[in-house]
Amino acid sequence: MKKFLVFALLILVIAGLAFSAKLKVAFIYVGPIGDAGWTYAHEQGRQYIEKVFGNQIFTSFIESVPEGAESESVLRNFAARGYDIIFATSFGYMDPVIKISKMFPKTVFMHCSGYKTAPNVATYFGRMYEPRFLTGLIAGIMTKSNIIGYVAAHPIPEVIRGINAFALGVKYVNPEAKVHVVWSNTWYDPATEKEAAISLLDIGADVIAQHQDSPAPQQAAQSYGAYSIGYNSDMEAFAPKAYLGAPVWNWGPYYEKVVRDVMNGTWKSEQYWGGMADGVVDIVVSDLVPESVKNLVSVFKEAIIEGKFHPFTGPIYDQEGNLRVPAGEVLSDGELLEMDWFVDNVVGTIPR
Predict the structure, then answer these.
(1) Which of 64, 175, 203, 258 is deepest in the core (most CB within 10 A)?
(2) Which domains does the chain have, with CATH numbers?
(3) Cis ω on the peptide bond leading into residue 315 (within 30° of 0)?
(4) What does DSSP assign to residue 315?
(5) Cα(15)–Cα(276) distance, rounded to whole angstroms?
(6) pTM, two decimal places
(7) pLDDT in tens, 115-142
(8) Which of 133, 126, 193 is nearest to 316 (CA)?
């Protein structure tokens, strides 16, 4: 019996050492993993690295964590439990990440969509404005009423930049069309987002775009016999009679890179902002879109990837008629990241 107990204890010690040798990676999500949108896309990235690294890593996640101070305890708990990397996947986690990172200098914190860094904190995001512009091309051609609705989330530069990129795509193919914006002030609230979409459909919008995580705006569009543009992931199954396509995220390869860098000891704090050329953002186009329009989208997509076209190339005017970007010039990354104004074919205001 004594030999058996010693052997069992040895097995437990070996198992414990094997577990501790694994890189521990945590994810904090702002919504439920089944939202079919933003959180779902990040969860697909987590599952991707599990398949890539197998038993080399151990991952965990917590979903529906409120932004702001309430996320501090979740961040602290993961770090205190020895997680090597913590991916905080929403803008509102920014200040809590910076605060908690100072308490755990050996932990790598990755904050999605923010702008504050530290020696052990990096930021990452994607140039979603690139596929947003492409979906604007589709909407501008497919509209008949020239009233295009956009259900906007929160009035932050990320959302404003997306609206403008979409509107510039619309204008490129249809100067007569207007993009009407209604704010939901939500990331994931299907009922509120559906009502916002209906308010746009009631004024004659025949295409509805969105920046939230639920498919509710697309379902509202389908119920009205209108078209929809999704976001975050391919949501065609939720509104197949309305769905034209969506700008989508592909986080897996980037998450793989971060994990490898940490494993290899080459990780460093940076502000990553990748585009379609990196594969972190892309567009899906449904079969409701005519082949001629698909071909146009493909041409512009390739031009963007090759660096031959930028969606924010002037001349670009704001709603008051001011020239914001002279002909031939392109907005800098700094200007894009701080964007707080609408282009001239957007109808709506930005809450201050």
Answers:
(1) 258
(2) 2-126 (3.40.50.2300), 129-248+280-347 (3.40.50.2300)
(3) yes
(4) P
(5) 42
(6) 0.90
(7) 999 999 999 999 999 999 999 999 999 9
(8) 133
